[in-house]
Amino acid sequence: MLPPTDQQTPTAALLQAPEAQALELAIGDMHLLLEQHGYVIALYPSGIRPEHERRLHSIRSVLESDRIALVKVELPPLGVAVLVRQLRQLSICDFSPGVVASAARLLSHYIYAGALLNSVAKLDRVPVSLKSHAKSWVPGSQFAVLAGPEPQLVKVGPTAEPLTGPEFRTHLLVAKGQLPSDWVRETLAPAWKVQAVHETAVPTDSPRWWGTGKLVEFAAHLPDISVLYQLVASVRRDRCHWCSMELIGDRCAFCSAPLPAPEHRDRRPPTGVLQLESGGRSGP
């Protein structure tokens, strides 16, 4: 987890992997979080191990709670860390839990997450051509890979095309692994016109996600809480037809119910279940 950007940004709880904590203790920890805070938004990457994802669903099922949102995002580890911090910033604003949880999908499109790699031979989360695979076996080769918001891969060199970067003001977070980071600071940062460069440790799961430990991971992001607030506040809010949570976008982050088509919204049941008349019969 990344450190807070200011004194107001709250911390986050780290949910342990199955081999690190017994299920009973994990359930107890989640119950305590719900008692202390009311709602829990569990953000995790799509590359998480299946048994870890099953653990999260098991905990929610055992607690039978509609106050736990399990939000899976298509970002590499450093991008996930940035997104978690942004949601922590938004959690102290006047947004409801449903809006904060569903804002994860929106904000992930404004995080340019990638890495400088010495090889793409084992990279399976970003499309890689056979030509790039062949080049990765050449000693000294380096590749710049963008995982999101749009996948991109270039071989680093004097004539290489730069990665497509953000068209808005960002800060660049850099996690230095077992690879020199000169290209990121001297080439990428100026090309993307970032306002500041910050360093952090490489996330534990990054070598597995990128297929190599010889990397420099980076993520350009919106650093200003006022800009994040305006971005989220500008999106239309709706009410989930199933669990009644407030949301932005086309799907509820708490129960995963899709937003009904516009022509059906006025006819949806107010609480997501059939309203039975006293003594009436339920229908299919």
From TrEMBL:
Region (Disordered): 259-284
Protein name: Uncharacterized protein
Native source species: Streptomyces nanshensis
